[in-house]
Specification:
Shape: globular
CATH class of the largest domain: Mainly Beta
Number of helices: 7
Number of domains: 2
Structural class: alpha+beta
Helix content: 10-25%
Largest sheet: 10 strands, antiparallel
Strand order of the largest sheet: 4-3-2-1-10-9-8-7-6-5
CATH architecture of the largest domain: Beta Barrel
Radius of gyration: 24 Å
Order of helices and strands: HHEHHEEEEEEEEEHEHHEEEEEEEEE
Length: 297
């Protein structure tokens, strides 16, 4: 029979081996950094199954992924420009318990995969399904595989999608931003818009323009000008804004900061960024903000 001391020594040795294996896991190093989408498969079916709404769907293929790993701590950020639209903070190997689900992040497959699993339960405690996100790096690309599985034994329904990312080349991204804005854009989704309007008592035509106007944008780098025309389809109403970059225009200044185009003045800040073919505009006033999402016509 093993002695108590021997048992404790074996337990300590096993834990040390686990820690050493976790420290050596290649995914912890490979995944760190900022990534942008380059390809995806079966996302429409996956998003239809999740049914999270237009804003979630519009950002799912547009936000960049940012990972930071510090021993067991994993931070995953979903970024539109510098704005965080989603985040996950997990401790590898520890389980989060909530009334109707549990979540756990683990390193698998000899340290090459970082997997987060959510298991769902009905109010009576019955298992009803799960979702997992499997992340791994292969040939310099980050693969994120999402799966939803619902049902019961013998009657499972499963949907899987794959997104592929590459490391962000900051210099190339900033250079392409000079032309990415050019074109005509129509709104497809919004986040926090109604609250912003209610707080600032915005209604009528102003509210309809903010929510429904199409935008025609041009960045003329050789003239250092920014042109913005907001117009309502099938009407003659439009608003024009033309400004010299980095110069004051009626109390507002428009300038580039990295790949984002900022307009600042009179207590407001407007931040524009294009990611994966979509235009995102965040408006900030009095510590409240909303985001509009546009697609190119």
């Amino acid at each position: 029979m093993i002695s108590e001391q021997a048992y404790l020594e074996n337990l300590k040795k096993t834990e040390q081996e686990k820690i050493a294996k976790l420290n050596a896991a290649p995914i912890k190093k490979d995944i760190v950094g900022d990534w942008k989408l380059v390809n995806s498969t079966n996302t429409e079916a996956y998003l239809a199954e999740k049914n999270m709404g237009r804003f979630h769907d519009a950002t799912f293929l547009a936000y960049n992924q940012s990972f930071l790993v510090n021993f067991r701590q994993v931070t995953q950020l979903h970024l539109i420009g510098n704005e965080i639209v989603g985040q996950l903070h997990e401790c590898i190997g520890f389980q989060t318990r909530k009334p109707h689900y549990t979540r756990k992040t683990t390193v698998q497959d000899e340290g090459t995969n970082l997997v987060t699993m959510e298991t769902w339960y009905a109010p009576d405690g019955k298992f009803i399904g799960f979702a997992n996100e499997n992340r791994y790096v292969k040939e310099g690309l980050l693969y994120i595989v999402n799966q939803i599985k619902k049902g019961s034994a013998g009657n499972w329904e499963s949907v899987t999608c794959v997104r592929v990312y590459q490391k962000i080349d900051k210099a190339a991204t900033e250079e392409s931003a000079k032309t990415d804005f050019n074109g005509t854009w129509r709104p497809i989704a919004a986040d926090r818009f109604e609250r912003f309007c209610a707080t600032h008592k915005i209604n009528g035509l102003t509210k309809r323009m903010m929510e429904g106007a199409h935008l025609s944008l041009s960045v003329l780098t050789f003239l250092r000008e920014f042109h913005s025309i907001a117009f309502m389809p099938r009407t003659s109403f439009e608003q024009k804004y033309i400004a010299q970059l980095d110069e004051d225009y009626n109390g507002f200044t428009t300038s580039f900061n990295g790949n984002q185009l900022f307009t600042v003045g009179e207590g407001m800040e407007i931040i524009r960024v294009v990611q994966n073919g979509k235009l995102f505009i965040t408006t900030i006033k009095n510590n409240l903000s909303f985001m509009m999402v546009y697609e190119k016509i």
